[in-house]
Specification:
This protein is an alpha+beta fold and about 600 residues long. About 60% of the residues lie in helices and about 10% in strands. The strands form four sheets. Strands 1, 2, 8, 9 and 10 form a five-stranded antiparallel β-sheet that branches. Strands 3, 4, 5, 6 and 7 form a five-stranded antiparallel β-sheet that branches. A three-stranded antiparallel β-sheet has the order 14-13-15. The protein is extended, with a radius of gyration of 37 Å.
């Protein structure tokens, strides 16, 4: 629900403008209309914004650039040393000093690698092997400019070999260097931590002061001048229920102001006023975009449907219990995970929904509840919908006993029914809201499509429920189609050339015919994701039972892998299912619902100028 707003126009003496702004900021009730052209070229404001950005980066980094550079240099050297130690490990322990002494005596060591398949003993001695690769060394002596083998023959590195350059230090010596570098890294981290404890709180306060200064400067520059600069004209908005309080402040200031209702085209902010349940889901509305003042707040409709969609995608009562527990731990700050901060209530709510829906779908931790509780099998929606002998629902047991082949999974049918209802609701919302914003005459085309699709479906259901004869049903549908056609093809844009209206109607018909079917089929994902999660959970259960020999009466040692498989498998499945259950309901809301409801989400949230 969007709160009613009033538009204020203030006329203030330039000499008293700063004092006026200070008092308005203290009141904290006015959302000032900012004018980008007023401060786009202000050098002081640009510098303040640049300072705030630099300070924000410093706070996010947690330390000055110099300390971070020193730490990064240690990390880079540590990683390089670890890599070099790993490379040198296979060459074993050696003395760089002894190698140097041999070189002074006229003897050189040539290190090389080659394939075990082509190695010949006269090439050198094998130091180590790693699968098919041999690590070798050849000793040569220098006789003037000639390099000879110990046998006195000229030495040539075989083409099948790759010569290696060894580090001056052995792997053992490099490991000692790694220990020293780890000490340097710990010292660098300690310096960064000490700097953070001594400075971060002050830097955050400094950043807040800069942001307040930026806000002040933007508001100060968002007024127009009049009477050769003697007067300042400013525009703002205030919730209707707060106007009496604001008027009292303005009267004390002896300021001239005008109050009026906002009109289409004004930059009116929106303030949402929803109940506790819907307020949890305002975060999703904000992810897409806030409504404009003339639009409707989609949150009250988004909230129950998102909860339902998420629960169907999860489709497991056991996972619902885990989500509830996780949400409560986050809410009571027993789990401090930054990305979930403040989301405890909504996670708990989604867990409750998943528990309820998962129970009716008959699945908990991948187990089939209808097999565990056959006496209440009729409650579970994991049976079949059949049309043979009349449209009816059969439980798994009834379906197996009936001998009927085919049918449709009830969860799939339920997903499609929900999709049709969701889209029909979106079209009704669009028609009502467009009528409120633009008038009934300008929305005849929208009403035509709403009557055709929503009215046609409703009439068909009513006629079938009341067993109305087929001929009468056809006549009702034909009348609805004819009335709808007038709005779609003739009166979709009143006052325009009828031929243009017909052309526009035909184009809309193409878009609707190709769009509505695809939109409806998109809701199959509610069934598919729940089915996939349940099957994967069941697969992990089967793997665990395979370890136990097909029963829960295995040996004691078999319980350890059994429990590990269940824990790891179900946690992995829970994580993947949660990701899918988070994303796909958003997709159905942002694409299918918002598109058919005409929601744009280009508004600004009410943010009063306040301290």
């Amino acid at each position: 629900m969007i709160e009613s707003m009033k538009k204020y126009t203030f006329l203030v003496l330039a000499s008293r403008y700063d004092a006026f702004l200070e008092r308005v900021r203290e009141a904290g009730l006015v959302h000032v209309t900012l004018k980008a052209e007023g401060f786009a070229e202000d050098e002081q404001l640009r510098q303040t914004i640049a300072d705030a950005d630099a300070l924000q980066r410093l706070i996010e980094a947690g330390a000055p650039e110099q300390l971070l550079s020193e730490r990064n240099a240690v990390v880079a050297k540590l990683e390089a040393t670890k890599k070099e130690a790993q490379r040198m490990a296979i060459w074993g322990t050696f003395s760089s000093q002894r190698i140097a002494e041999l070189k002074e005596a006229g003897y050189d060591l040539h290190f090389f690698t080659c394939s075990k398949k082509v190695f010949q003993e006269e090439w050198g001695s094998i130091v180590a092997n790693d699968g098919d690769t041999l690590y070798c060394v050849a000793v040569t002596k220098r006789d003037g400019d000639a390099v000879l083998t110990l046998a006195g023959e000229p030495f040539v590195m075989p083409e099948a070999c790759t010569e290696q350059t060894l580090n001056e230090h052995s792997a053992q010596e490099l490991l000692a260097d790694i220990d020293a570098l780890n000490g340097l890294l710990a010292a660098a981290d300690a310096r960064i931590e000490a700097w953070g404890k001594a400075n971060l709180d002050a830097k955050r306060e400094e950043l807040e002061n800069l942001r307040r200064s930026i806000n002040w400067q933007k508001v100060q520059l968002s007024s127009d001048t009049a009477a050769d600069g003697a007067l300042r004209l400013m525009e703002g908005f205030c919730p209707t229920e707060k106007t009496a309080e604001l008027n009292k402040v303005l009267d004390e200031l002896d300021t001239y102001y005008e109050v009026e209702d906002p009109v289409e085209g004004d930059a009116t902010p929106v303030k949402l006023n929803n109940n506790k349940f819907a307020k949890l889901f305002e975060v999703f509305t904000g992810m897409y975009g806030w409504p404009t003042y003339g639009e409707f707040d989609p949150t009250p409709i988004l909230a129950p449907f998102y909860l339902l969609f998420f629960s169907l995608c999860m489709g497991d009562a056991g996972y619902g219990i885990l989500l509830m527990a996780f949400g409560l731990l986050v809410y009571y700050k027993k789990l401090n995970i930054e990305m979930f901060e403040g989301l405890g209530p909504i996670i708990t709510t989604l867990g409750v929904g998943t528990l309820i829906v998962g129970f009716f779908l008959g699945t908990a931790f991948g187990m089939d509840l209808s097999a565990l509780f056959p006496s209440i099998d009729y409650l579970f929606l994991n049976g079949k919908v059949i049309t043979e002998g009349g449209f009816q629902y059969l439980t798994k047991a009834q379906y197996a006993a009936s001998g009927i082949e085919g049918g449709y999974d009830v969860a799939m049918v339920l997903a499609l029914v929900i999709g049709v209802f969701h889209i029909c609701l979106a079209m009704v919302v669009k028609a009502l809201c467009y009528t409120k914003r633009f008038g009934f005459r300008a929305t005849l085309g929208t009403w035509g499509w709403t009557l055709l699709i929503v009215g046609g479906i409703a009439a068909l259901i009513i006629c079938m429920a009341l067993s109305v004869p087929m001929e009468t049903t056809k006549m009702v549908l034909i009348v609805i189609a004819c009335i709808s056609a007038l709005g779609i093809y003739v009166f979709n844009t009143p006052g325009r050339n009828p031929l243009l209206n017909i052309g526009a109607g035909l184009w809309d018909t193409y878009n609707m015919a190709t769009g509505i079917l695809g939109d409806t089929l998109s809701y199959i994902r509610l069934y598919a994701l729940g089915l996939a999660g349940g099957m994967l959970g069941g697969a992990f259960n089967d793997l665990g039972l395979m370890v136990m020999g097909g029963s829960t009466e295995g040996a004691t040692w078999q319980w350890i892998p059994f429990i590990l498989i269940l824990l790891v498998g179900h946690l992995l499945n829970l994580a993947m299912s949660s990701l899918g259950a988070f994303v796909h309901p958003l997709r159905l809301t942002f694409v299918e619902y918002f598109k058919n409801s005409g929601y744009e989400g280009k508004g600004n949230l009410y943010q009063p100028f306040a301290k």
